[in-house]
Write a structure and sequence with these properties.
Helix 13 links the parallel strand 11 and strand 12 (about 390-395). The protein has 16 helices and 14 strands. The protein has a 6-stranded mixed sheet with strand order 10-9-13-12-11-14. The chain is about 45% helix and about 15% strand. Helix 2 (about 110-130) packs antiparallel against helix 4 and helix 4 (about 140-165) packs antiparallel against helix 5. The chain is of the alpha+beta class. The longest helix has 29 residues, at about 170-200.
Amino acid sequence: MSKYFLLLMFAFAAMSCSKKVEVKGNFAGGSPLERIEFVEASGVATLPLVNMGVDAKGSFSGSFEAPKNGMYIMSYAGKTAMIYLKRGQELNISGQAANFPNQFTITGDAKNNNDFLLEVQKFIQNYASKINVGELVTKNEDAFLKDIERIKKDIEGNIDSSAKKTSADSEVVQFKKDELAASVLGLMNQYEVNHPQATQNPNYKVSKNFKDAEAKLDANSERMLKSQPIYRNYLLGKLSQEFQTFATANRKTGNEISSEVFSQFLDTKKDMSQITKDYLLAFVLSSGDIAPGMTKENSDKISKIIKEKIKDSEIKKDLERIQFVIAGPKVGDAISSAKLIKADGSDFKFGTGKPTLVMFYASWNPYIAEGTVPVLREVVNFYKSKMDFTFVNFDDTKDQFVKTSNAMLKGIPGNNVYGEGGMNSQIAKDLGIYGFKLPSFVVLDKDGKIASRFFYNLGDPEIVTVLDKLSGLKAPTVQPEAHLQNDLLAPQPAPQPQAAPTK
């Protein structure tokens, strides 16, 4: 009996220490062309932890290693919902695909905590709709501080009552209270910045009472720093005007990237903790400078900043990973030798003696058949005398790969191969392939070494330059068509961190 008891205890210990979250669910009316991903919400430069397919009946399942207990962003069909998860939990989720994320049901281990979040969110949405921020910033300081204290007390009361009603865990309750504190601090910063102009009193400065109230809300700064992106935004907002002045005075060549100037600015903040500097610099790096198409010069600058300025090992690791994912392997590196198979089950290896254009794709890529394949056909037909072509599929199963390649790429010369396991395959991990990088392209030289950065558009002039150089051919140039654009519908440029490190 004691032997079986010990085995049972070992099994229980293994389960309780598991970092995996098991996910099962169904979205009625869901499409097999849509995917479900989970991203850890409080980290910096975070990447999807899992990419799950949806079958014809709207069902999905999968698992992922959860880095911590906390908030996760679940995305489906381009829409997102916030879900609180603990490592080792089972998450069951259901609803109508058309109603996500406004309506869905969570059962399983994660039910109580997410019922709590839903209760609190409903209250906050109704409560916040009655707060006039414009009116708040015009009030005298004493009246403002009383209003802020009342708002905090009202919402905290709802948090406590909702926690009792839903039997929520203490850590998710603490998370929500920290989020509230960070939000109130944000309101206080708005008051401090906008009150002088709103009241035509440019000489206004906050009092000791105001600073004491801020300090009280900021008592758990390191905890909020690690779990609350909204708190990091508050800190960046506090630094905004000071950074603007510094950036204006310290841009010497005009070629400095935002994180380069911001890291210099942080060097002057002798009273700021290193972990705070790490999180804020990571925000500026990941929200602007680490981006597709970054030049080698800027990529080298970013690598140096991460290596020299970021001290926290986890933040450094996350930034290095996302830089690799965005930039891809370095030119000159050998391409991954991870296993690829053909439709007949035989192995495939890169390195044919010819330069090769490689495409990475899956059947669920939006509009790939209409938008990418016609251009691919033209590219292959032009360069096929001097180059080879390999099309790497990342569908969930080999059967789906065979169907997809036969239908989508029929008649296009090239090697059709499959990364076993799809998005979980070793080659996807080695090359930093995620759903947002599909379809994508890279060029290999005749020895199977990387000869270009990753591209997401076959019409990119740079990829044409690389193909021409390796093939010895010269692609015809086409004059770009003129486009008339409705400025009201045109995408607006994101705020640049060099102007103010806020988002």
